[in-house]
Amino acid sequence: MTRVVAIIGGGVIGAGWAARFLLNGWDVRVFDPEPAAQDRVREVINRARLALPGLGEVALPEEGDLSFPRLMSEAVRDADWVQESVPERIELKQTLYRAIQGHMAEGAILASSTSGFTPSELQAQSARPDQIIVAHPFNPVYLLPLVEIVASQANPSALVERAQDILSELGMAPLKIRGEVPAHIADRLLEAVWREALWLVKDGVASTSEVDDAIRLGFGLRWAQMGLFETYRIAGGEGGMAHFLQQFGPALQWPWSKLTDVPTMDDSLVQTIASQSDAQSGDLTIAELEAQRDKNLVAVIRALGWQDWGAGKVQNEVDATRLDGAGVPVRFNDIIDLGAPVRTINRAVPLDWLDYNGHMTEARYLDVFGNATDRMMTLVGCDRAYIENGQSFFTVETHIRHLDEVRAGAPIRVETRVISGGGKKMHLWHELRSDDRLLATAEHMLLHVDLETRRSAQMPAMLEERLKSLAEAQGKLPPPDGLARAIGDPA
Which of 30, 239, 240, 256 could form a disulfide with 7 if both were Cys (CB 3.0 to 4.6 A apart)? Predict the structure, then answer.
């Protein structure tokens, strides 16, 4: 049964939550009395449709339904999760909770996006404090995986665990904060850097663009994949963190920082920062900057995924849980019908696969077909453990036909047939489709090889048996259009 989330507040964060839930199969109800809220939410969701489905290697669940109830009570009624993202005023949030908790299911989770308030503060005037927790995300909510979970003693552990499980299913990385502290963890760290940056600009030491360059071209790249402590552990050399602290710990006593001082936001400083920031972005509008930000984040997270590291590792783990729901078999015994083409890829076109024509570049067609071949290899038994044991398949010939174009965000899938298999050869046929359109076909001939001698070798009985069973069952289908008569043999 489809689950329901109510989003209270359709600003940047609320709209991001709506996109995250909606694209992961939840029905989403958004309540915001502001007239422009619906358009804003739809704009964010449209942006997310381009970026989020292509973040991983597996298709997302079928999209849920989006609605905008006129009454807040209608939005929260029977919802499994209520996400509050209204302005940071404690009286407003407490008043809101009193108004909606009477209409919510008692077992539902009421989560606040607050970046500063603690759960105890939020729960202070509630008749049911046990269902109120903090779930603080990061913008854009539909792409960044981190969400800080903060609970109080009033929250049952079962509810907190259920919240973490739900957020993990949404492709997020819930970080359970050990105790209640204003601004949680991440924003306290950001605040420290932000204060120093403001002083550097106010004191004329750096411009806004120079501060940003120092971050994005330097330690920001390190932080994206290792964080603070692990970065400094490496800086300590073979002695690790202990050596680093011994060598550089005394520097913390030097009068470098202005962390305890806040520059006065007078008109002069505001105008200086605003004018420099506007000039830094050139002619790019906020919407254009948001689109570029999404492209950059997708590229970074996907690159980390290739290394199975950081935010990329989170996405890989999510992908692994979604294969079955995407109709992609994980094991040979998961193939329901041996006589039908096997779905080996089901995903969306990511933003970093586009060429100068705005569609998927030809190199990515080969990439998709290569991944489809890898999936078939795994299904018949040539998995990571098999390869580490010294045998694998090498592709010796590939024929690709490009038949149609496809753009970012479009769903794509590959259906694979085994034309023949056994002895030393595996002959595959792939068809790449988007909805009902045939985009491309590929024919691959592979040789089974011994990785020590780097020469072809007879495949073991299990692989041969599985390949032959697929070839025999699928051989009853009509021959694929475009199949080479004798691939692997001289023309």
Answer: 30
